[in-house]
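Review session, final week

We close the course with one last complete record, chosen because it touches almost every idea we covered. It is Transcriptional activator protein LuxR, a protein from Methyloligella halotolerans with 260 residues. Go through it on your own first, then we will talk.
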Amino acid sequence: MVKLEEAIGSIETCSSTDELKHALQDIIEDFGFSSFNMLDAGNPHVDVPYYIGTTPENWVQTYISNGFVHVDPCVTRVRRSNAPFSWDEVEVPRYDGSGRKSGACKVMEAAHDHGFTEGFVVPFHYTDPLGRVFSSSSAFYWTDPVKKYRFLLSRKRYDLHLIMIYWAQRAIDIIAEQHRNRQGLLETQADPRTAVALTDRERDALSWAARGKTVADTADILFISQATVETHLRHAIAKLNASNKTHAVVKAIYLGLIDV
């Protein structure tokens, strides 16, 4: 079985997402897993989030076509947890044969129908340069008898966790580099700190609005007139393409343009 330092070393030398995918596949196969998949768990409203992995295409299509990302109990747990876990640690409502089967139950049954007997899931939460928090869910798929899986996990659980932390961080670094060289791999927009050029006074006005201050309060704090505060807010709203002051405040906070 591959040594921990060798696994991390192979990850750190990767210079593309394709190299990362093949490197991790080689590593997890050495542990006994059949495949893996990492998906963006931070956007619950997205039907097909960004993902990268080596799971069979028929499983990927089953997962996407059934909208499993919205009912997957593992993804739900990832959003609330930092610790890795196995599928058998996730609570899934039992189906007694009557009534409607839960979405969580359908996901796990479908996984077993595709030959997966167990899975090891690693949550990863990180902050980008703008201070925004993102979450990803990485799953290692097991197809051998569960007894072998439990024996492996009793000895290598922390190694797998550490390997995935290094892998996810390297993936972020590579994707960030690709963003700098061309339109982003994840199709994100340009850095909003430069795309939205708020003046210092516009940021001040939004910051105090975010703290619940009225126009009159902000005028007193900044030693300017109320009309000037309203002008700064109006300009900020326009630059942020917001519908009103509250909307502008929310967008400015999300984009890391102001602190609260």
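Two points worth writing down before the exam:
Confidence is low (pLDDT under 50) at residues 182-190.
The two ends are 49 Å apart (CA to CA).
Good luck, everyone.
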